[in-house]
Design brief:
Number of helices: 5
Number of strands: 4
Largest sheet: 2 strands, parallel
Strand content: 15-25%
Radius of gyration: 18 Å
Distance between the termini: 29 Å
Strand order of the largest sheet: 1-2
Helix content: 25-40%
Structural class: alpha/beta
Shape: extended
Oligomer: single chain
């Protein structure tokens, strides 16, 4: 889950298969609560894992690295789409693996 809403967290937990792990990546605001089906958590052995993705120092270090050698990373940007085409890269990644050589898509609202 990466949306950071209670609806997305609920859905992620509902869609997790027995024995599976729901990774709750999108952060909700402080004080937010969600209900957990204790039957599923206990008897279906679900794992709920919250993860925090970065700190400001990590972003600064990444931006410094990109600024130092942008050409090295340009090859990662395999596709470019305009804002009116945003559904295309989402459809290309709907399966288990991206299609048509997609690695990273740039959605450029000015394109």
């Amino acid at each position: 889950e990466a949306a950071g809403t209670t609806e997305a967290w609920d859905r992620a937990m509902r869609l997790t298969a027995p024995g599976g792990t729901a990774v709750l990546f999108g952060g909700c605001p402080r004080g937010t609560s969600v209900e957990v089906d204790t039957f599923r958590l206990h008897y279906e052995a679900l794992t709920l894992r919250g993860v925090f993705h970065h700190a400001p120092r990590h972003i600064r270090a990444a931006l410094e690295e990109l600024a130092r050698d942008p050409e090295t990373y340009r090859a990662l940007l395999t596709h470019r789409f305009g804002l009116d085409e945003v559904v295309q890269p989402l459809a290309m990644t709907a399966g288990l693996a991206p299609r048509d050589g997609l690695l990273k898509a740039v959605v450029d609202p000015l394109a």
